[in-house]
Amino acid sequence: MSRLLVDGWQVVIGIETHVQLRSKQKLFSKAPTSLLSHSPNTRFHAFDAAFPGTLPRLNRKCLDLALRAALALGCTVNERSSFDRKHYFYSDQPAGYQITQHYSPFAVRGLFTPTKLGNSIRIKQIQLEQDTAKSITNPSKKSALIDLNRAGTGLLEIVTEPDLRTPEQAAEYVRSLQELLRAVGVSDGNMEMGSLRCDVNVSINRPGEPHGTRCEVKNLNSVKFIVAAIEYEISRQRRILENNSSAEVLQETRRFDHDVWKTYKMRSKEDAPDYRYMPDPNLGTLVFSQEHVDSVRRGMPSLPASTRSRLLQTYSSKGVTERDIEVLMNLDANREIPYDGAESSILGAVAYFEQLCSRNRDPKITQNVLGQLSALGKPFSSELISVDRMGEFIDLVVAKRMTRPSAKLLLKQMLSRPSNAPVNHLAAEMDLLDTDPPHHKTMSANDDLVRDICLRAIDALPSEIAAIRGGNQNVMNKVVGWIMRETRGKVDPNSAKTILNQLLR
Ligand SMILES: Nc1ncnc2c1ncn2[C@@H]1O[C@H](COP(=O)(O)OP(=O)(O)OP(=O)(O)O)[C@@H](O)[C@H]1O
Ligand SMILES: [Mg+2]
Ligand SMILES: [Mg+2]
Question: Annotated Gene Ontology MF terms (predicted)?
Fold first, then answer.
């Protein structure tokens, strides 16, 4: 425990996470939910704009997603819960209040073990609520534009107990939570697009003493900012407490300024708004029967922790390591998940891997090939390369029909030009196959062919060669690149480098 202390201070962190539910419709209206790419004010109904006389109508899909989150986080689902109005007046809040679950949230007392943390984090509660509209202010014109597309989208607020102790633990919690919510289809969890945002609460205290006063940093939309905001808060609060033994940290709501990488005060506890919570008279009690909760539980996909251990158990004897599994699990982490049900035909990376293995492809080689995909820098999706085509590709690799660079070139081509043509046709078309394998395989460091192409390179690239002779070894990669292009990747780049160096000596 003592290693968690920072110069004798214990750091205490609790996180409130807002996640957008992956539903086609909003929480209380049939209006379609939106993406950032949709034109402003094209995706809302009268209720979302708080048109007088309109009434909320609860979306069942949102409730089932909410239940999935609660079950995945080991929460107790309350049979009865209810909705309340949280009042505050801001231009992005058409009704003047947000519908949330203040007095009686639908799920409480969960437990969640982030992947790389040894200990579990207690989940205090999960509540269902509405998202706000978006306001785009223009201070120079003293104007604000309102976009109602996001207004009324279903959100979950997932609140932890103050169980986290370091910025790294907080980061690991958020990453694991994101993975979990994606795995069970609750949210696309995309922080950049705003579908997962965190408020972090930070305090410090001496060991053995009660927890310090928390400051809350609102609305962080990247793990990097979460870590930076917590680190800044720790040093700010230390400065206050260490400079004057009678000074206190005041409870505040703060913002993180990512231009200067610091938090700044938004308001103190004294000027905290009075939200005048009241039960929403237009919404009755929310009742979840045990049968319904059980049926949602039965329909849940496997959770990341059990996927990890299952993969390890099944494939470790075939050479697949824990690290390999991490690569697989993260392969499609940034994939955009469509909202329209089309996802059922798109396989996740793990399912894709397992289908290949079940079709007799070697697990270690398959993992290796899939790992290369992430190195190519394009988000992987089974839409781009079908399982069948990937199988054919792996067969070519196993049969040593191509050099490594050729294989990479081919994979790149398959990713950028999805097609159903047989992979060996494509490879032949690109002239990547070793038609006469024994001949090409002997194309090694002492092969005359490599020497020939190196001599051609020396002729073709006089200024690069002069630079290398002048001592600039970085230019070597450019020359080797030229050789790879000329030979369509059939030469081993290291051999080419060795020979070039010999020739230039
Ligand atoms: N002493 C503390 N130090 C750090 N974090 C704390 C401390 N006490 C409580 N917390 C954390 O602060 C968070 C409080 O969130 P909660 O949603 O319950 O209240 P809130 O911030 O007042 O409400 P809201 O911001 O939703 O209006 C929790 O994550 C909790 O774990
Ligand atoms: Mg809260
Ligand atoms: Mg809060």
Answer: ATP binding; glutaminyl-tRNA synthase (glutamine-hydrolyzing) activity
Query: For ligand 1, is residue 266 a contact (CB within 6 Å)?
Result: no
How far apart CA 273 and CA 293 sit, in angstroms, is 36
Residue whose tokens read 């949709």: 38
What is the ipTM for the molecules in this complex?
0.99
What separation in Å is there between the alpha carbon of 252 and the centre of ligand 3?
A: 10
* Ligand 1 binding pocket includes 14 (Cβ within 6 Å): yes
- From residue 249, give the alpha-carbon distance in Å to each of 49, 218, 239, 268, 332: 40, 17, 10, 11, 42
> How far away, in angstroms, is 159 Cα from ligand 3 center?
9
Contacts of 320 (CB under 8 A, 6+ apart): 311, 312, 363, 364, 367
Per-residue pLDDT of the chain (505 residues; tens, 9 = 90+): 446 889 999 999 999 999 999 999 999 999 999 998 999 999 999 999 999 999 999 999 999 999 999 999 999 999 999 999 999 999 999 999 999 999 999 999 999 999 989 899 999 999 999 999 999 988 899 888 999 999 999 999 999 999 999 999 999 999 999 999 999 999 999 999 999 999 999 999 999 999 999 999 999 999 999 999 999 999 999 999 999 888 999 999 999 999 999 999 999 988 888 999 999 999 999 999 999 999 999 999 999 999 999 999 999 999 999 999 999 998 877 666 555 444 456 778 899 999 999 999 999 999 999 988 877 776 677 888 999 999 999 999 999 888 888 898 899 889 888 888 899 999 998 888 876 554 444 455 457 778 888 999 999 999 999 999 888 888 998 999 898 888 877 788 888 888 998 888 8
- Cβ contact 13:230 at 8 Å: yes
Centre of ligand 2 from the C-alpha of residue 159, in Å: 6
Domain 442-504 adopts which CATH fold?
A: Arc Repressor Mutant, subunit A (1.10.10)
How far, in Å, are 130, 153, 276, 457 from residue 89 at the CA level? 15, 19, 12, 70
Ion ligand 2 residues within 5 Å by Cβ: 16
Q: Is 161 in the pocket of ligand 1 (CB under 6 A)?
A: yes
Domain residue limits, the chain: 7-290, 302-439, 442-504
